[in-house]
Design goal:
about 300 residues, 4-stranded parallel beta sheet, binds phosphoric acid mono(formamide)ester, binds norvaline
Length: about 300
């Protein structure tokens, strides 16, 4: 059966850990300048409905390192022809689809209609490739022992937070969302996860108590792509949730700071924090490359061992 990577629920815990191990191995190979052109002759089509720096570049560079080719399409799905027709055409030409969509349902529709793997490069609901890179980064900084780490996500219960929540199914960490009332994320998705992970997932609105004992403070933009019209309203509502030096001082001493980027400096995070030695943001960005290479290799069925 063709495997897709639309969410953390598409893989078993064992498979997710194998992908991460492969990502560490691919990083080492690349740093040593050793060849790993394991996807020679393969082609990926990338559909981007929204802007991107990190995701677009790292999938392209990753496929280049692996010896394959990339075709990038900036298009709106469903505008010129139906989503199933796009999928049924692409599967005749390419080996893999990487898609960033406004609607998560369009990703599901692509996956259901293409007999080739589809990777979620961000949707309105989820951003699993980001959290794979974030976990890889934590493994590097906490010596692979990420058990019981407390990650506190400060801000909007958005696509990035939803994927963090789903990651709890595979990783024994604790996750707390500290957000304004009314911004706690998708109730249906989160209640299903909570049934599985219990108190490892907590949602609170009290920023002072919420960040206590955090090993990691994570934040993201207050208005995601597609919510630009709410920017002004959200700036006021989220102002008490800004990650600044004062907020960082309430976490564990030496707590790490993470952000998926792009950041709005002076809004959800101050420059002092994002540029501080505690910040892991560029390691996260680098690891997008390695982890996505591992995901592509896995989905395309190449077994290096
Ligand atoms: N973090 C992330 O997905 O960045 P881009 O939007 O630039 O791809
Ligand atoms: N939540 C953000 C993440 C960007 C990488 C957005 O969807 O715009």
């Amino acid at each position: 059966m063709v495997k897709d990577f639309l969410s953390f629920l598409d893989f078993s815990t064992e498979e997710i850990h194998k992908i991460l191990n492969l990502a560490h191995e691919l990083k080492t190979l690349q740093k040593k300048g050793l060849p790993h052109r394991w996807l020679r002759g393969k082609t990926q089509a990338m559909i981007f409905e929204k802007p991107s720096l990190r995701t677009k570049l790292t999938f392209q560079i990753g496929m280049f390192h692996l010896g394959g080719e990339t075709i990038v399409m900036d298009m709106r799905l469903g505008e010129r022809e139906s989503v199933p027709d796009v999928a049924k055409n692409l599967e005749r030409w390419v080996d893999l689809i990487v898609a960033r969509t406004f609607s998560h349902n369009d990703l599901i529709c692509l996956a259901q209609n293409a007999h080739i793997p589809v990777i979620n490069a961000l949707s309105d609901l989820l951003h699993p490739c980001q959290i794979m890179a974030d976990i890889m980064t934590l493994q590097e900084h906490f010596k692979e022992n990420i058990k019981d780490l407390l990650v506190v996500f400060v801000g909007d219960g958005n696509n990035v937070f939803h994927s963090w929540a789903e990651s709890l199914i595979h990783f024994p960490i604790q996750l707390r969302l500290v957000c304004p009332e009314g911004y706690s994320g998708d109730t249906h998705l989160l209640s299903k996860i909570k049934e599985k992970v219990g108190n490892r997932l907590i949602i609170t609105h009290d920023v002072h108590d919420g960040v206590k004992n955090a090993d990691v403070i994570y934040t993201d933009v207050w208005a995601s792509m597609g919510q630009e019209r709410e920017q002004e309203k959200r700036s006021k509502i989220f102002a008490p949730y800004q990650v600044n030096e004062k907020l960082m001082s309430l976490a564990k001493p030496g707590a790490k700071f993470m952000h998926c980027l792009p950041a709005h400096r002076g809004m959800e995070v101050t420059s002092e924090v994002i540029d501080s030695p505690q910040s892991l943001v560029y390691d996260q960005a680098e690891n997008r490359l390695h982890v996505q290479k591992a995901i592509m290799v896995t989905l395309l069925g190449y077994n290096p061992h």
